[in-house]
Structure formats: structure tokens, C-alpha cells
Amino acid sequence: MREIKAHRTGSPLNESLRLECDEESGKYHVLVKAHGQWGPKLKLEFQSKDFSEDTGGPAGISDEVLLAMVLDRLEQAKDKNWQTSLAITKLEELMFWLSRRPGQVQIIKKEEGK
Question: What distance separates the 2 farthest-apart alpha carbons in the chain?
Fold first, then answer.
């Protein structure tokens, strides 16, 4: 397991969460520290292979789905400030550029030409 520390900002909440990636399976694990012990809380599995409807459905979530969750949480925040608004703008920009990756552009063009 590889530990990811990018979320560590010094806040008590983020310091009580541990993020790990199992590089062999591609699964991400979020652990929570409670009573001095780390315990499992959540597992996320991302789609790791090319996806088509012929494969029987997705094997995991996409980057865009995860970002959409974060974007929705920030948009629904009751105490928005300029930093939150800027973060929303940057997430929207990130979603735009992800949609312009080579495989995605073909899908967009196909949908526009219906």
C-alpha cells in the first residue's frame, strides 16, 4: 500500500484520515483514526481499463464522478467564501479539460452529431 498525503492540510479532520492506494489492484482505501487506532472506512475502485458497453458495465468509478461529488459538495456549502468559489471554478475547469482527452472528444463529437 502506498500512502497518499496530499490531503494533509493540518486540519484536525484531514489529520484523522489516512488515504492509501493498493497499486496492484488500483483500489483506494480511506482509513479513519478513532481511539488511537486506524480502521477502514471506505474503498474506492476506479475504472482501470477501456470501457465499452460490451464489457458488461463499468468495473469502477471515473475521475469525473469523483470530481462531480466534490463539486456538488462545494456548490451546496452554506458558508461559501471567495476561496470556495475559486475552488468551484477550478474544479469546473478541470472537468472541462478532462472531457477534452482524446477518447472523450470522440464521444462528445458523436453526441453532438446525433
Answer: 57
Grid coordinates 493498493 are at which residue?
Answer: 22
**Residue closest to 63 by CA, chosen among 30, 94, 109:** 94
CA 6, 9, 10, 12 torsion: positive or negative? negative
Given a contact cutoff of 8 angstroms between Cβ atoms, the answer to whether 60 and 45 are in contact is yes
pTM: 0.74
- At residue 54, the pLDDT reads 61
Partners of 3 in beta bridges: 20
Domains of the chain, by residue range, sit at 1-45, 63-114
The three cell numbers of residue 97 are 479539460
For the stretch 32-89, pLDDT in tens is 998 889 998 899 888 876 666 666 777 788 889 999 999 999 999 888 899 999 999 9
Q: What are phi and psi of 99, to 5 degrees?
A: -70, -10
Distance between alpha carbon 80 and the CA centroid of its chain, in Å?
Answer: 21
